[in-house]
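Sharing a chain and its predicted structure for anyone who wants a worked example. Both blocks are below, sequence first, tokens second.
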Amino acid sequence: MESENLTNAATRRRSDRILGPVRIRVIGNNASGVSFAEETETISFNQHGARISLTHALLPDDVVLIKNLANQIEEEFRVVGGFQQVFGGRQEWGVEALNSASEIWGIKFIAPAEGIEPKVLIECAACKTAAHGALSSIEYEVLLSSGLITRHCERCGETTRWRPSTQVLTAEVIASSAKNVVVDGERRKTKRLKLTMRIRVRTVWGVSEIAQTRDVSKAGLGFLSNQRYHVNDEVYITLPFVDRQVPVETKAKIIWTLEASVGRLYGVCYVK
């Protein structure tokens, strides 16, 4: 009986938010649209997202890449919103995992019992459309802290800010909210990080250059170059490339090329 109680307690803890620092690298665009890479730590995390501290300001609904520096797993996260400012010019941000099945945190999470997720009535700040349903835990945290989260609004056709609603909850609102869940999930899966930043590209013969990315994902990237590469060429990518730091290379393969007006575009996928 005692062993069973311990197991149940562990299960509950692993399905809840975990407070603790995990060393991560965050790559994205700041609020001014300038690319950055910053090493930091998590404040807390769970299956659906994390609370992180950064010196760079983010834009809600942007996508950032987060790598767990302990296990080298990298995933895309959507910026839900910001928390309070903290010491040293830092701010905490809530980010939601686009791949909720990821093992980036190195923990096998247990799904919570059905029906215990917080359900709230929120409305689009632009068009006043109301929606009712369960929020991810990180969305709920941000909503409690700042009173606003970002979501896609079907009526506005774009991402808008949402806040707690004082409207009357009706059967029509519940039915409409249920229909929009799948649409919103599909939209998030197709989003990719458009990011311009310097990288080092090195060939297997030791020839290297500094190129510029056009987009980045956890599986690969696209970059612009004046050099000539061929499909299936193996290269080594340092992302991001920062002067006077020890480079960390990732093996990759050219999978497509395209002539552009200012050079040639290449698509690469990482090789595990």
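Comments welcome. Helices lie at 2-15, 137-146, 171-190.
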